[in-house]
Amino acid sequence: MSMSEVKKQHGGARPGAGRKTKYASTVVTRVPEKYLDVIKALIHHLDECEMVDRNYNDMVSEPIFLRSLKDKPQAVIFKVSAIKKT
Fold first, then answer.
1. pLDDT given for residue 10 in this prediction
2. DSSP assignment, residue 63?
3. Do the beta carbons of residue 46 and residue 75 sit within 8 Å?
4. What are residue 80's DSSP bridge partners?
5. For residue 38, what is the enclosing H or E element?
6. CA 70 distance to own-chain centroid
């Protein structure tokens, strides 16, 4: 029996294998490296604000400092507010 005829018993892809995520679904996208920390901070801020509703005050993040793609200094602040129904 040759090696190509021997069925491998381990390795390869398996259903359900891999790192699990706490999010329902995710996507892969390209982000300029300069903005990576800001994107991570946005996700962290949104995770912390999941309880914001009409009974909670708005939540504002600390400023995140970065340089634009044209190398200009900038500060980014995120704010999460509940939508007030009328």
1. 73
2. P
3. no
4. 59
5. helix 36-48
6. 25
